[in-house]
Amino acid sequence: MRVLFSVSDWSSHYFPMVPLGWALQAAGHELRVACDASQAPAVARAGLTPVPLLAGRDLIFMHRMHNLEQVHLGRWPHDRLPPHPVTGEPLTGLAEFGDLGTYLARTRAEVAAALQRNMVDAVGWTCDWQPALVVCDLTSLHGLLTAAVADVPCAVHLWGPVGTVEPPEYDLVPDDRAGTLGRLGVDAEVVDLIEHVIDPCPADLAPPTTAVRLPSRYVPYNGGGPVPAWTARPVRASDRPRVCVVFGDSLREMAGAGSFDLAGLVRSVARLDVEVVVLVHPDDAARLGDLPGNVRVPGPVPLHALLPTCAAVIHHGGAGSLMTALAAGVPQLSLPFFPDQRANAARLAATGAGDTMDGNSFDPAGVRARLVGLLGDPRYRRRAAALRDQLADRPSPAQLVEPLEELARAGRRVHHGSRLPAVDGGLPLQWSSTRR
Question: Start and end of every Erythromycin biosynthesis protein CIII-like N-terminal domain (predicted)?
Fold first, then answer.
């Protein structure tokens, strides 16, 4: 059968789908990945076939615009200005935008028009290619919409503990703020289009949803990259505990370089009798300066290759880091900055497999003290191992193929009438603070 993956423009949203893509292809199914042009290289490197249908402003730009709107409304909580919405460079003033309210309104209209063009292009291509099934990530509005218009069953592939029914501060289901659903004849709210979810979480971290769950095992895919030979050496009881410090690209891209004290955190942790391995973007690594001898900065090592050798991991609460650590059975200290990261961190801490501190206000000495507790209390290791075992007991991506074949044969449970009109202009759009 033909299967369409529809993904948003942030790689950590769709990386959890990659092993399922491999499994579907290995079972003989034809797979395409509808994506933004910016994501086509990463999709191709994963061994999947991209169809770069989408274009326009990406998630990073949208979040930076949200930051700028907070400045305009007097709600920006920091002394420094946010990064420039286009270049990402630090802003020193707002004069280049002219009247900020006018700039925001004009850009909203441009984004709304681009969004509608994307939707029409995606729907048209999907109707031409005629997939039997659509699988999309949680923030892929075009995936949900194309499945509804083409009357094809759809499963939303979750990436972590945040589900489809959440309080407003954690809600990642995209709003149709440009009015595209109605314009394409879909008589439903976005959340009503979510009939099935692929749930990769252990039972103790089950994401809240009213959709039919298809349980699946989380199989880490963190992108490609060389793995240093020292990661293969067996960990001995006499070795110093290895602690991984990993921060994704989101904080630097959306809040700006230097938005938190990574160097201070690393130096504070390195005062313990541990080996510290820092996995960060090269730009962040360059700002670390001189480091103690017990700190390694090996470059872009895939996280799943390193974590099985670690006694603990410190991260920003992103679902990719959290779920990869779960699969390795490693206790976690989360320092979340954004709302969905706070949900991830709090829910993990509630299981007893980790601890959390606010990323926006942590102090390096406090992180070191929490890490001492994480390393010294065996209950964290036991709970982390229990969650790892829960994951291992779930169906593998290969075992999920048959239920998806059955879903494709059964068709949609609910039908929402549809049509395919021409694009006729944009409707008001609000910037979303959604970030992953």
Answer: 22-248
| Average pLDDT rounded to a whole number, residues 232-256 | 83
User: Is the Cβ–Cβ distance between 55 and 35 less than 8 Å?
Assistant: no
Our measurement of the distance from residue 375's CA atom to the centroid of its chain's CA atoms, rounded to an integer in Å, reads 27
We report the CATH number of the domain holding residue 9 as 3.40.50.2000
Within this chain, do residues 75 and 164 fall inside the same structural domain, yes or no? yes
Closest CA to 247 of 162, 172, 334: 334
Closest CA to 301 of 362, 245, 370: 245
* Chain CA centroid to CA 11, Å: 7
Q: Rounded to the nearest 5°, which phi and psi values hold at 350? A: -65, -20
User: For 35-46, what is each residue's pLDDT tens digit?
Assistant: 999 999 999 999
At position 199, the amino acid (one-letter code) is: D
pLDDT tens figures, 338-369 = 889 999 999 999 999 999 999 888 899 999 99
Length of the chain: 436
Both 340 and 362 in a single domain? Answer: yes
Specify the residue for token string 């280049």. 96
* Residue 346, Cβ density class (10 Å: 0-12 exposed, 13-18 middle, ≥19 buried): middle
